[in-house]
From TrEMBL:
Cellular localization per UniProt: Cell membrane
InterPro entries: Na/Glc_symporter_sf, Na/solute_symporter, Sodium:Solute_Symporter
Catalytic activity: L-proline(in) + Na(+)(in) = L-proline(out) + Na(+)(out)
Membrane topology: Multi-pass membrane protein
Lineage, opening ranks: Bacteria, Pseudomonadati, Bacteroidota, Flavobacteriia, Flavobacteriales
Full protein name: SSS family solute:Na+ symporter
A biological process term (GO) from this entry: sodium ion transport
Alphabetical list of PROSITE patterns matching this protein: NA_SOLUT_SYMP_3
Pfam families according to UniProt: SSF
Organism in which the protein naturally occurs: Leeuwenhoekiella marinoflava
Keywords of this entry: Cell membrane, Ion transport, Membrane, Sodium, Sodium transport, Symport, Transmembrane, Transmembrane helix, Transport
GO terms, molecular function: symporter activity
GO CC list: plasma membrane
Amino acid sequence: MVLGLSYLDIVVLALYFGVIVYIGIRSSLKIKKEEDYFLGGRKFGKLFSTFASFGQATSADGPAGVATTTFKNGASGIWSSLLMLFATPLFWITAPWLRRLQITTMGDFYEERYASRKMAVTYALVGTIGMMGLLSVGYKAVTTTALAMTGKSETALTATEKIEKEKADRLFELSNENFTYLSQAEKQELTELRQENPRALFSYFSEDMLIWTICFIVLFYTALGGLEAAFYTDLLQGIFIILLSIILIPFAWSAINEQFGGSGMMQALSHLHEQLPESTFEIFGSPATIDFTWYFIVMAALVSGMTVVAQPNQLVTAGAAKNEDAARTGFVTGTFMKRIVTILWGMVGLCAILLYGGKIMNSDFVWGHATTQLLAPLGLGLVGLMLASLMAALMSTADCLMITVSGLVVNNFYKYFFPDRSAKHYIWAARISGAIFLIGAAIITTQFDTILQILKFIWEFFVVFVAAFWLGLKWRRANRIAAWSSILLTFMLFYMIPMILPTVFPAMRTDENLTKLTDSRIVTRNYEVKEVDLENRKHDIAKWEELPKSEKEQIKKPKQLSLGDRYAVDYAMPRQAIFWSKSVSSAKDGTSYGRGYMYLELYLLDRLGWDLSKNPYALNETIRLGIRLLFPFLVLILIALTTKPDSEEHLRLFYQKMRTRATDNSSLKNQPITETLLFPNSNWEIYTWNKKDRNGFLLACLIVILIIGLLYLMVSLGS
């Protein structure tokens, strides 16, 4: 063993990274012009487009993240990565539009459509920051999992580390008790340990070391080989990602059968349902995620579906395809592959609840802990293969994002200040800007302890550009003034002002009107009593018996349960912050203060007389998302209708290109196939669907239904 890994694991890792570096060097020899670097010569077919889309959508935060949320919340935690499922059929229609644009970066769209170089520059700067945050999520996930895979044994711990681990074990023990039946002394001890937050796992590596190692490996092969290197490695890495999604499941089932008896998949699934509470298998409405309501899912899917198409990285896979059939097939197929493997990751999380529910304190370590426990004893190098697969998941996203951002910076920012340079000059500028992007994302990663706030912020961030993109494509009346107004007002009202105000006026964070929380609610659920419920109730009764006499008088003794009966469980839903992006916390002096940035739109509604504290947290979040999506569209439409339209000649050239189907790279010059307008005498560019459009969209909708059915099947088998 070396640094927690076997020699065979290290050999597997070395072979993998050797192949990656070789691909980068080979691809670099083919780069002659900018399009070769940024879009690989627009020559990729359905296979490479599929794995590029899959790799771009699937980073290391996918497997580890879904396993984490499922471990914490049960089957409903799978929705943390499944929201975009409902928007996937839309990509069948939008992917061809991105291919027809015939542009290098998404920033070029704003310059071409609105004849504004400055708008493209603005998009490049804001989009780069957004992509840095997006990549930092993957960095955080893979390093956390790698730390769990390379943990020190008990004998390798230093004296200081042993003391800290003992505290962490005690914190874990108290956290898993029913808080109601803890003594006052234990409650005080739990509070103090939570504030101290001792570590339970110590690795041979530091998190920062892992982040920078991965950063420079991606930087080397992608900076050399450009998008072609990224796409070839995405094909390899996509296979690795699928492998890691499957490899743990049979070993987890085997471990369950070994512990509880029996053999085979169905026996293991039966043990899951027999040993775990019924609430674990609720897909909707689980008490752990009671605010994850159907209406929030609908609104979240709508926002994510609208904004994701406007993100800089969406152009890469569609724009690099050799024709729009390859673009749409690859984009949609790769995205559906992500949804299917998400369900497999959820199965690992469910198995981990049964196997490690009383052993893992930090749920972020679930995937790494499961890998070490299930695969390391085999001695086949599978831990190294899993670590390589996780890094592949991260790097397949990082390389595409790096090329995306370097294209944005060079084409829409650098060329603005340094025009008319050689192709070789701009390719090297792209390599340098891509390096800065990767390093910037690594720096952002080191500044955060968790990924939840980063994910939420990035997911909503592109509402700033959503109206200018969609109406720019579909409404001829959208003009430059209206687009600028929509972009700037949305950015100022939802991001800039809410961040600046609490800094300039810090008293706002402690204002009692701004630190309101949602009202506390008791939610009651009825479940069938299982073996695990009997054991938990026996333990609760024993804890009650241990309480001092004075405390027993204040707490009612828990009743005995019988197997197969129905019993009611009351869940006290946590009070949530209404007007702050993070939370409302309590200072040592007892005062409350808001953390993060403000939600001005919700505060305005509250001041107008709608008491948002009476709403469920999910309803407030649904309202907020709806306002953020609707506002930029309303601004653009109102201002466009009251200002002068853009040049008709400019619009004619742009929409002529958008109406021409990109059947191959020369379709704009030879035998073009044009779209038919649904409303030919209006300003709306709505195209009639042909048989391929209609059948593909309906098939995609059917696949959505089948994937939801697969999710239900996964959680019901063995029940």
